[in-house]
Amino acid sequence: MRAHAAARWLWSATTAPARLARASLVPAAAAYAACARVRVQAYRHGLLRSRRIGVPTIAVGNLSVGGTGKTPIASWIAAHCARRGLTPGIVLRGYGGDETGVHRERVPGAIVVQGRDRARAARRAVGLGARAIVLDDGFQRLDVRRDLNLLLVSAEASDTARWMLPAGPWREPWSAMRRADIV
User: Fold this and answer.
1) Three-state DSSP class for residue 109
2) pLDDT tens digits for 80-101?
3) Under a CB-based contact definition with an 8 Å cutoff, are residues 92 and 116 in contact?
4) Domain of 87?
């Protein structure tokens, strides 16, 4: 069974084996949820710092793992910036997928920078001439202060278990939607 199919089965199947497998992961999901809440609170209370990049910054992200159309939306926003005369910088983690190529193809004038440290990657894009930053899959990247937080919600994921990873597909609880400017 491929990883995607296995995860889908685990998170959405209603069979007894799937429910049992999910239940066995609930303690790990609770620990993950607690860590996610502590991290958000650490940023909210100034224990961890968000850094301004110095140019308009827009984050495009989601609450669940998997595709919700973040990359096409991020490209569309970057293309809009380019049409308005702002050289866009698109910053992404770069998990080895085709997102970098998609951005370069859809927005030829964009400065596309991959990096685990998104704040550093965004500063690098600005150093290369970016006048606006789009963070692809950036909703959880609280180390970069943004001017607009765009949250995409997958209709497909909404019918799965409400548990956080690994018992469900959620990176953060639904209450994290409050951080979004647009859902």
Assistant:
1) coil
2) 999 999 999 999 997 767 888 8
3) no
4) 1-183
